[in-house]
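It is worth pausing here to work through a concrete case rather than discussing structure prediction in the abstract. The textbook approach is simple: state the sequence, then state the predicted structure, then interpret. We follow exactly that order.
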Amino acid sequence: MKLRLLLTALGAVTLLQAGQYDKVKITPDMSYLYVYHKGKAVKVHRIQDTKHKLTGEYAKTYRPGQYIQPINLKNGVVTIGEVEVLQFMKEKVNIQKGMLIDVRDKEHYKNESIPSAVNIPSKIRKNDAAMNKILTSLGMKQRSDGTWNAYDAMELVIYCDGLWCEKSTEMIGNLLERGYPSDKISYYRGGFQMWKMLGFTTVRN
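Step two, the predicted structure:
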């Protein structure tokens, strides 16, 4: 109930502040939106400085030993872009019906992430006990024979460093092997690099 009231209040604030973020919009009809990150409302928008340039690690175009990831993973998982990620954050994450998962290393996540994202580093996939706990927290129920009932599994969007990063595809593959339904997983291929490239709001953890 409190969450609904807060969302209503935030919607009213959005109407009052319309125009402040219209210089660089997300879509023709969307200047920004609110999402929840660790219990606090965060306004997600694009940097309004039209001369802003990307700097730092995510300005690089090359990563040694890394190759561009395919759009079609050929496993039933849908690949999505930034607008779809935002819709998911608003319509699923905000009401606790979905989870945005950052599978980058802990230090990268701690330094900066997409608002509302939860960190589950890709390397955890190799730890069966940890993965069992994670699957349970995502709504899966383990049967007596060791298989998983996925009826109540949450919808997920998974991302990592960017188009060249394989952490997401590794984690997605592992989840599917463990019985997570492919129709409840989406892959944000652009990842954190594209999020930064488009000037979206980020948070420290």
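Step three, interpretation. Residues 122 and 170 are 7 Å apart (CA to CA). The chain is about 30% helix and 15% strand.
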